Amino acid sequence: MRNPKSQDEVFHIVQQGDLEKLREYASSADVELDHLVSRGSGDTPLHVAARIGALDVIRYLVLECGIKQSIEKANKDGKRPLHEAALYTNLQCAKFLLDYALHGRRETVEILLKVMDQLGDSLDLTDSCGTTPLFDALRAGHVDTAMTLVHTGKVNVHHKDKLGRTLVHVVAQAGQVPSLEYVVSDLCLNINCQTDDGTSPLHLAARENRLEAVSFLLHHRANPHTFDSTSLSPLDVAREWKRDAVIKLLVDHEKANEQAPGIT
């Protein structure tokens, strides 16, 4: 086999999850994989392997090559490998996306967690938007990955991103009902939390036309009468964005409450 002659070819090997070629390259070339960084994206090989869920490559890089610095390395989007392992889709790095279902991602996260635990690092690693791996996992609907992160005891479930959004905000905005169930029922987070500008999870779900999320929030006693800094309620937002199904749901909920006083 022809050995790769450029850094781009190395990343291509990792992106394809080709462990055999990667082993051959590492044994025949004078290269330190832990210091290899993509010129364009700032990715390391570990970023790419975590992003595509290449568990065997991650095992090789971490356990056999002894990679340590790359675990903490942020790319130009501010994301570390742990962010990528928690994500299903990463629009900021679309060129690396592969068209296949998420498989083995929880195991991938667990391997990274073991190494990071040895380093004693916090798992609240933020990207340029203030997003943590826990946010990424739940926004994408990966509750099992989120549970793995939470069970380490090294994540702050009350973290807010740079827009002041909590976990409840981001999963409501994404319309991820299983994630909503987890953060509300298991993590017991405030369903009526508001950002500095008064935006509630119900505001975001209504704006994004997340009908099932709106229904879930209302069923779990989200307050439809909260107002943001522009004095808009979730119903006002739904009307502004012409979310007809959400409008009907909110109006019907209001009518039901009027017929049954004391229920919110």
Which features would summarize this protein structure in a list?
single chain; 264 residues; mainly alpha; Serine Threonine Protein Phosphatase 5, Tetratricopeptide repeat; 2 domains; 15 helices; 51% helix
Descriptive report:
There is one protein chain. This protein is mainly alpha-helical and 264 residues long. Helices cover 51% and strands 0% of the residues. It starts with 6 loop residues before the first helix and ends in a 5-residue tail after the last helix. About 6% of the residues have low confidence.
Task: Present the secondary structure layout.
Blueprint: H1 7-15, H2 19-28, H3 45-52, H4 55-64, H5 69-72, H6 81-86, H7 105-119, H8 133-139, H9 143-151, H10 167-174, H11 177-186, H12 201-207, H13 211-219, H14 234-240, H15 244-259
ANK repeats: 41-62, 197-229
Keywords: ANK repeat, Repeat
The averaged pLDDT comes out at 83
The structural class is mainly alpha
- The string of secondary-structure elements, in order, is HHHHHHHHHHHHHHH
Task: Tell me the CATH topology of the largest domain.
Answer: Serine Threonine Protein Phosphatase 5, Tetratricopeptide repeat
Number of helices: 15
Total domain count: 2
Largest sheet entry: none
Number of strands: 0
Uncertain runs with pLDDT below 50, 5 residues or more? 88-104
Radius of gyration: 22 Å
What form results from the Cα inertia axes?
A: elongated
Distance between the termini: 68 Å
Please name the fourth-level CATH homologous superfamily of the largest domain.
Ankyrin repeat-containing domain
Helicity level, as a percent range? 40-55%
Strand content: under 5%
Can you tell me the CATH architecture of the largest domain?
Alpha Horseshoe
**CATH class identity of the largest domain:** Mainly Alpha
Keywords: ANK repeat, Repeat
InterPro entries: Ankyrin_rpt, Ankyrin_rpt-contain_sf
Pfam families: Ank, Ank_2
